[in-house]
């Protein structure tokens, strides 16, 4: 557990009882949130916050003016909070914002780190020192990262097909990147499994890649590990198309 901070509050208790997101009192029915309300909660200068959001290409895409108020699309609130200088908010919420930003950094690293990197963040210790809950978290984040990367690859493949249809023929594709090659085979196995089980089977494939080969990202995959994973998926797919045997143990 982290040490109590200077104002005497235990940051872990603050985080779980009333974190910085909870303080914003977001309504599940809201799609846009007034920046004036967000700034008032933090003791932040509204005019400066609005100008900073307008100047930021991602945040500005989610800004609107409604009934004279500048509002921000609700899914961009976490990004907006992560970018605020903690020294600019009032002291009552400073520790909450600081802890939130540390958590953001940890989650982003676990979701986007290239293959082969260790935890290297404030949330997780070295793998040999991890508790069961920490190991479970790392494994689930790895599978979530694979799922997101798979989703993006499949969107790109769909875009390529649609573009090929639009011009009346197939686009000539360059040699696929290793991530595309692996993602295509993951999709083939997951769809073949789903045809038999009538369930979404992507999760089982991600779990197998992580448990069998430690693959937590399609980025920066070592060729030998990639080749092993591709061969394993090919065997799994061939088994499903041949004898009606159960899939490999994952």
What would a concise description of this structure say?
The protein has 250 residues and is mainly alpha-helical. It contains eleven helices and three strands.
List keywords for this structure.
single chain; 250 residues; mainly alpha; Arc Repressor Mutant, subunit A; 2 domains; three-stranded antiparallel beta sheet; 59% helix; 5% strand; disordered N terminus
Structural summary, described in words:
This protein has 250 residues and is mainly alpha-helical. It folds into 2 domains: 102 residues, Arc Repressor Mutant, subunit A (Orthogonal Bundle); 115 residues, no CATH class. It is 59% helix and 5% strand. The chain is built from 11 helices and 3 strands; from the N terminus they run H-H-E-H-H-H-E-E-H-H-H-H-H-H. It has a 3-stranded antiparallel β-sheet with strand order 1-3-2. A hairpin with a 2-residue loop joins strand 2 and strand 3. Helix 7 packs across helix 8. The longest helix is centred in the middle third of the chain and has 35 residues. It is globular, with a radius of gyration of 23 Å. The N terminus is likely disordered.
List the topology elements:
Layout: H1 11-17, H2 20-23, E1 32-34, H3 35-42, H4 46-55, H5 57-60, E2 63-66, E3 69-73, H6 77-82, H7 91-112, H8 132-166, H9 178-197, H10 202-213, H11 223-241
């Amino acid at each position: 557990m982290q040490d109590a901070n200077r104002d005497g509050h235990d940051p872990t208790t603050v985080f779980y009882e009333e974190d910085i997101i909870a303080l914003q009192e977001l309504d599940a029915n809201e799609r846009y949130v007034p920046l004036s309300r967000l700034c008032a909660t933090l003791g932040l200068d509204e005019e400066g916050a609005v100008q900073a959001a307008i100047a930021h290409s991602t945040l500005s895409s989610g800004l609107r003016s409604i009934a004279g108020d500048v509002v921000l699309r609700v899914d961009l609130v976490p990004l907006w909070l992560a970018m605020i200088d903690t020294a600019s908010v009032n002291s009552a919420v400073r520790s909450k914002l600081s802890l939130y930003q540390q958590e953001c950094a940890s989650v982003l690293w676990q979701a986007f780190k290239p293959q082969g990197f260790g935890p290297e963040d404030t949330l997780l210790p070295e793998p040999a020192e991890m508790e069961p809950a920490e190991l479970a978290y790392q494994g689930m984040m790895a599978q979530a990262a694979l799922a997101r990367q798979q989703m993006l690859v499949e969107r790109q493949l769909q875009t390529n097909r649609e573009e090929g249809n639009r011009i009346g023929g197939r686009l000539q594709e360059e040699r696929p990147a290793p991530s595309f090659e692996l993602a295509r085979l993951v999709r083939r196995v997951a769809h073949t499994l789903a045809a038999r089980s009538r369930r979404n089977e992507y999760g089982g494939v991600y779990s197998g890649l992580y448990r069998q080969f430690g693959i937590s990202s399609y980025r920066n995959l070592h060729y030998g590990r990639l080749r092993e994973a591709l061969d394993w998926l090919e065997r799994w797919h061939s088994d499903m198309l041949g004898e009606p045997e159960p899939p490999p143990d994952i």
